[in-house]
Amino acid sequence: MMTTKKVALITGANRGIGLETAKQLGELGTTVIVTARHLPVAQETATQLKAQGIDAYGVQLDVTKADERRAVASFIDEHFGKLDILVNNAGVAPKESLFIAKTLETTPEEFQYIFETNLFSVVYLTRELLPLIKKSKSGRIVNLSSILGSLSVHSQKDSPIAPYRILSYDASKAALNLFTIFLAAELEGTGIKVNSAHPGWVQTEIGGYEHAPMSIVDGAKTSVDLALLDANGPTGKFIHLGDELPW
Description:
- By secondary structure, this protein is of the alpha/beta class.
- It has eight helices and eight strands.
- α2 (39-50) links the parallel β2 (31-36) and β3 (56-60).
- Pfam families: adh_short (PF00106).
């Protein structure tokens, strides 16, 4: 059944930036579908949002599982008939730490773990949901990236992000940025906008709570802004709080 309200799917929405993104979108009148790897967690997240007056639904989605990607597409098609906003928020960092720089020591297992969630699953989920996004009058796809994926910034002399050269994570975000560029170009003329978001260094489990300068509330703002772009907004760009970043 087609709805006139905007419908957004946010992956990894049970905590951190994903949860705050769902909250901010919901407060602005968007119906939000919040996903987590376990159904009770997703449903509890939706219940918390509903208590705040937000139209929210909790759905199980492990983005690495093809059957669950298909199931969430079927859920959206059955309940809403379209998808206006896809926020590819779910992501992982190396299990030891995001702050231990290493290159040749990166293991095959770490590469597989990071890329499976941060790149491959984003591509596969977006492909699964694209027919529903094409039914929207203003489809928006937001890929949660990081300044750590910027080749331009990494290659600068005395780069400010040099201490965080973690090959698996940084390469996954650089590849995600390339996906943004390619997909935006392929969808040119459709009205669908595709952008990469750098949320900032945010006080989350990945970003760390001790030194990260940005609150989760501020960290979600870039995703929300890109999710609600008007027809004149950018596409195929790398954005942080309204400013374009170098690839």
